[in-house]
Write a structure and sequence with these properties.
With 579 residues, this protein is an alpha/beta fold. It has 19 helices and twelve strands. It has two domains: 312 residues, ABC transporter type 1, transmembrane domain (ABC transporter transmembrane region fold, Up-down Bundle); 222 residues, P-loop containing nucleotide triphosphate hydrolases (Rossmann fold), CATH 3.40.50. The protein is elongated, with a radius of gyration of 35 Å. It binds adenosine-5'-triphosphate. Adenosine-5'-triphosphate (ATP) binds next to strand 2 and helix 11. Keywords: ATP-binding, Membrane, Nucleotide-binding, Transmembrane, Transmembrane helix. It is found in: Cell membrane. This is ABC transporter ATP-binding protein/permease.
Amino acid sequence: MFSTIRLITGRSRGLLSRATLYTVLEMIANAAPAGLLYAILASLFQGPASLKQILWWTVLLIGLFAVQALFSSLGQIEAQSNGATIMKDVRLRLGEHLRKLPMGYFARRDQGDISHTLLTNVDEVEMILTHLFNHVIGSIILPIVSAAFLLVVDWRLALAVLVSVPLALPLLYWSQTLMSRRSKQRQEAAAAVHSRLLEYVQTIRLIKANNQTGQRFSRLDSAMAQLRDDSIRVEAMTSPVVMLFSIVLDLGFVFLLLIGSYLLEGGTLDTAAFLIFLVVSMKFYQPLRSAGAALTQMRYMASAGERIRGIFAEPPLSEPEQPQFPVSFDIEFSDVRFRYEEKEVLRGIDFRVPEHKLIALVGPSGAGKSTIAGLVSRFWDVTGGAVRIGGVDVRDMRSEELLALVSTVQQQPYLFNETIASNIRMGKPGASHEEVVKAAKAAHCHAFIEQLPQGYDTVAGEGGAALSGGEKQRISIARAILKDAPIVILDEATASLDPENEAYLQRAIGKLAYDKTVLVIAHRLKTIRAADWILVVDEGRIVEEGKHEDLLGKGGLYNRLWQEQQRLGGWRIKGGRLS
Ligand SMILES: Nc1ncnc2c1ncn2[C@@H]1O[C@H](COP(=O)(O)OP(=O)(O)OP(=O)(O)O)[C@@H](O)[C@H]1O
């Protein structure tokens, strides 16, 4: 458990030591009144105390309580601020690590699962650092100090107090083992609920449109039922054992009463010592019981740590030892093979996009076009062959530098829940307002931005919900224009836009692609008739290539796709029906 926490917190370890020191001092101050009480009792048994004595005792007691309160506050403040600092660092490192992971990792893992680790699991580990850890330390130190004091007062009675500890410890170990076994399952159930909730909220429009409310909710409902069952199972299995641990521990008090009464009877124990044992033994058992419960809770939270550790254990994309940087920006695929897990999706792709030319990738759905485009930005590593930019293998380039060379405009652009200006500025952090406006003008979005309530300062809304599809596309093009990368990858929108939006979009793309090396994934063939070169991809291979007219003349797949699109053209209403 502690090794997991140490591994997660990494270089921040040791930051908690001051908080631990305050807790130790707090517990010494907590135990100290027992010594004073013993002296008071012993004195009272010899005769009545003077006013001066009573005053001294009162002052001393108040002083000890004040010291205890002081160290308690200092310990809490220290643990809180150090724990929060350590976990801020962990959150940042996690974010940084995730950014370096290949896209394959995100395809493999559920979004909700990852966000559960980033939010809930990190909070759980933070809880260990800010509260539980010091609580456990304090709950162990206080019994140790109390036991040492009792041993000094009367070792025979002290042994009676201590005898239940070795009897109870195996039960604590058992509860820890049970919790270790069960917590993983409960963590997974909690992550599944998180995933289903995220899915439900993100797709609420789709669910409503398809009248799937009941069906989708039943998935969420069954994930929640699983979580409930796992939670009950964790409690039902560990709580009785923790309870048993407390009961066995408390047996010590019974031994104390029996042996104490026996010794008192025999006249080998004085009453003051017996009384002090009765009082101090409370400071012995109660914290130990509390430590047992907190340790079991910590064990559960440590399984959250295991999940965080799992993310850190994922190997990031390798960085070259001797990075190279291209001086020209043509793109070359040389016998590229690629597989997602088991499935081979590219089988020997060979092509070259000369600098400043526009090449289109066309082909049926699932042919491998997006995968080819993703390999240029090294979202994944090829499983065979090489992808080169300006003759340099992308694996030999620093990933930051490679990403800076490529602007990608997605089919469904995402706008962050920030102002329009910040969304555009993402292309070039630190760009001036004038640069942002210039890019927006070039992308034909300045006019509609100006009409928004706060112009460029209007918040785009979660996922840019307040804007139309065409408007979001143009903002993402403005972002790419501002980035001004030498390579542009365009994943053309499949949905038809209205003619006005379409015309604006085409002009915006024209501005973006001017003077760049461009790779377009084309779904509507009429938009790429003028491409410098067209690659027709099918089942992970390039099956045809050439200019539009040549490809039509070949009468192959391109021709077939073209004829199909010409025939469908787009739906219209004819004779009161869609055709
Ligand atoms: N993350 C993934 N994991 C496993 N298989 C994947 C993954 N992404 C895509 N595939 C599979 O790889 C193949 C190629 O997919 P890709 O998205 O590259 O095709 P595409 O030509 O771009 O399709 P579309 O035009 O529909 O976007 C498909 O069979 C697809 O199912």
